[in-house]
Design a protein that fits this description.
Layout lengths: L6 E2 H8 L3 H10 L1 H4 L3 E4 L2 E4 L1 H9 L12 H79 L1 E3 L5 E3 L4
Antiparallel strand pairs: 1-3, 2-3, 4-5
């Protein structure tokens, strides 16, 4: 690594493509060794060149969290844009299906209403016919009863039988 002047923890983390938290953990781990190489500048901790070299040599793989490079970010953006496009297409397809199903549902409701109206009309006609049939049966029975009261005479005519 090149020799550098003092830098903040954030600057160090960015220059090494590691997270701030990874550097902070490393500073805690090597607190005794780095005590004389870290100074406070207001609220910021400043690392001298020896602290930077020490951290570079003692960086633990488990503490390293690589921050994404611009290229990695661009690739991730491309992947996310492709995923977004795919999901939008899927959403549009689903919406189209939903609209089609809604239209079919509306058509089915109209058809159902028409069938219901026809059914009610036919039901009314059947009731009317049933009433007519019942009245005709009653009239036929009355005529049969009346006809039963007549007996043939000698000459072939019918006359009303005497009631005893």
């Amino acid at each position: 690594m090149e020799k550098v002047n003092e830098m903040t923890i954030t600057e160090y983390a960015m220059s090494r493509h590691v997270s701030y938290e990874a550097v902070r953990k490393q500073l805690i781990l090597y607190k005794k060794d780095l005590k004389s190489h870290i100074r406070m500048d207001g609220k910021r901790k400043m690392l001298d060149p020896e602290a930077v070299d020490f951290l570079d040599k003692h960086r633990l793989e488990r503490n390293v969290i690589i921050t994404p490079t611009d290229e990695q970010v661009q690739k991730e953006i491309q992947v996310l844009v492709m995923e977004k496009d795919r999901l939008q297409t899927e959403l549009q397809t689903s919406q189209d299906k939903l609209v089609k199903l809604h239209e079919e549902h509306e058509a089915a409701l109209v058809e159902r209403t028409e069938y219901k109206t026809k059914y009610e009309l036919q039901h009314d006609q059947v009731e009317e016919m049933t009433t007519t049939i019942e009245s005709l049966r009653a009239e036929i029975q009355q005529l049969k009863d009346e006809a039963a009261a007549y007996r043939p005479s000698i000459l072939g005519f019918y006359r009303k039988a005497k009631q005893s």
